[in-house]
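Please, structure for the following, as tokens.
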Amino acid sequence: MTFLARLAQFLFWLLVISWSVGLLRRVFAWMMRGAKPRAEEDAGQTTASQRLHRDPVCGTHVSEEISFPLCEGGATLHFCSAKCRERYAGSQHFAANG
């Protein structure tokens, strides 16, 4: 009988400890949810690497850092490749979809 009592006690404490660890993880995640990196707090806006632009030719989303820009009529268009930029410059029949 002592073996079964010790086994039950072990399982009880195992359950209590696992529940406590899970609760601590949830509390820690809740506390960190509102925290922002210092750079974003100072800037107050997203960085250039997070801004995506839609390619007017093929519709691919591309960031400003790796895009092939084309300035036209006071606006800057961003393309995923030089080929798409050349297709757009050669034919003005493309428009961004939705």
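The longest strand covers residues 68-72. Residues 49 and 63 are 6 Å apart (CA to CA).
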